[in-house]
Here is the input.
Amino acid sequence: MSSFGVKVWCAVVLVVIVGELPMSTDAQASGLDPSFYKNTCPNVHSIVREVIRNVSKTDPRMLGSLIRLHFHDCFVQGCDASILLNDTKTIASEQSAPPNSNSIRGLDVVNKIKTEVEKACPGVVSCADILALAAEISSVLGQGPDWKVPLGRRDSTTANKTLAGLNLPDKASINSAQPDPNLNTTYLQQLRSICPKNGPGNALTNLDSSTPDKFDKNYYSNLQIRKGLLQSDQELFSTPGAETVSIVNKFSSDENAFFEAFKASMIKMGNIGVITGNKGEIRKQCNFVNTQSIELGLGLYNSEDGMGSIFFMENGDGDPYNKGGGDEDRGPCPIETV
Ligand code: HEM
Here is the structure.
């Protein structure tokens, strides 16, 4: 399944929601700077790019997944890599909050990136910055827009599972139990065959039925021909009098306008609640705060296989604390058909 469709739709959300954010999210005010690693890790961008480029050869959906990961990080206590923290005795992982559970992807890829970055510049680049860079690079690799990513975020030492449940869109509450009445009937039939009534509810389908692997404006065109997969997407166009109708029409006819809006919104989103200076930390291993990495004997990267795998050592109670970093595939049918 590929996913640039929702990302495209999400530009509307980004423009509408993130556009309303206060000035403190501006790059200068947040203290971030695209040249932050110029002297300390000059090749960080190309290192991140290389890992993602390789992964996306066999898993093109990963590009969308990584963009979404940055969003799901930023909307819960800021862009601080809190989403990457695994369950431990002191951390309740955001990964198992309903909007993320069985839905977020890319944790393994972030670990692969971190492994490569640590080899080149140990202890310098934060996991939060890796998420921000990965989002931009994924956009470019999907033939979408590029932008200079403001950098210098530090990683949190906490996570907030409750906030993840409150701040992030939960697919269970978004996806309708009934198909959108405005849907194109042929498309509806296709969805019904993919997701039959009383089926197992675990089928996957493209969010963008026209150009699923490409970052483009087609999701808006799809809405105009009533082929929006999620009801909440189709309503952006089909709700009479909604202010989003003109945005859909604009972006559908002018890809450049869409790209510009997306870039500005991604930069703005990337400034939410960042930790800088000497606050927070640069995690050695993205799934654990540094004190726990030491306690658990982590932070050692397996450079042999180059796969970013981590040595997990038991802490004596038989629990290796290896709860995360895995990549669950996406869950249920987005539309339960009748
Ligand atoms: C209120 C805002 C939002 C809602 C309601 C929403 C809803 C959703 C839903 C229901 C899914 C499917 C999840 C699944 O099946 O497991 C999804 C996927 C996705 N969303 Fe959002 N989203 C929102 C905002 C955003 C934003 C701001 C971005 C980008 C910055 C984004 C990027 C994506 C991407 C790329 C995917 C596909 C991920 C993949 O295939 O792994 N979303 N979204």
Q: What stands out?
A: Residues 3, 6-7, 10, 13-14, 61, 64-65, 67-68, 71, 103, 105, 169, 171, 174, 230, 232, 330-331, 334 surround protoporphyrin IX containing FE (CB under 6 Å).
